[in-house]
Amino acid sequence: TARIGSWEYDIDTGALHWSKGMYRLFGIPEGSPVKPELYLDYVIEEDRPVAERIVHHFRESQEPLEETIRIRPNSQVVTMRVKAVLLRDKQGRGKKTLGVNLDISEIKQLEQENLELRLDQQKGLLLAILEAQEEERRRISESLHNGIGQLLYATKLNLDQVARQVPESAVKRTEELLTEAINETSRVSHELVPIVLKEFGLEEALHDLCRRYDQSSFHIRCQVEGLEGRLESYLELALYRISQELVNNIVKHAQATEASLQFSRKRKQVVLQVRDNGRGFRYKKSETTGLGIRTIEDRVKLLNGSLAITSPKAGGSSITIKVPVEG
């Protein structure tokens, strides 16, 4: 049975009258003197601003009232919906406020359980996607290292032997190209399987990511704050892959000379912001965007986070991602 109480407040005299249901909601003996400030006595600390608004409404306002507030009449927290309407006299002046308080604790509990269930389902889906993608990356990385990488290295050894029999100028450029190909294969293999992330955590992995992209024609600054402990492994991996995709997009498409990657953790939220001084781009959620941005949007959504993109006409772009974390 829903617990409900009604009340009446006389604006002229300041007298407040409660029904039996109101006394039961607050756990107060029936007939005890009551006043609006009781909300301040029973409210939990997080909802004190709500209680102050309710008291102010009693004393000062002549407008309808609707608030949700949590009180602690005993050891249990009760969530109440407070609604009130104003009765006016013939001159339009407020005379009385009539209100009801409804206990919606069970509804709120069901909403919370439903939210937790949805979050668990999203987490499970994200884990499955990440695992499938990482398994494919591991397979490709092994093929690069054990297949193409070894083949390129063997070719270079054979070329070294041939180089002794022909003029140096004839093979020098070929050696340079082979060396470049071996280095590029090693770099790609490293990106596919981020060993630094697994061994040393997200902070060092982000710094390593920036170092590998930092070149003479392109400089990227990395700043990490508040990341004192490890996050859950799936979350670290997802955030690293998002960072990697963002930086890669800048290098490939932005024509930027400078960029910055800032990562911070503040209580129950992590914030990732990547900026560049490149040519910028048009972005509208309703329009089809590049595969990279769509992939990032999908991952952020699965993390129950938010993504904001700004790209002024003057150039440059800024992408900010906020993701909730536990503890």
UniProtKB/TrEMBL annotation:
Its EC number is 2.7.13.3. One of its GO terms (biological process) is regulation of DNA-templated transcription. Gene3D superfamilies: 1.20.5.1930, Histidine kinase-like ATPase, C-terminal domain, PAS domain. SMART domains: HATPase_c. It comes from the Bacteria. It catalyses: ATP + protein L-histidine = ADP + protein N-phospho-L-histidine. This is histidine kinase. It comes from Pontibacter diazotrophicus. The lineage of its organism: Bacteria, Pseudomonadati, Bacteroidota, Cytophagia, Cytophagales.
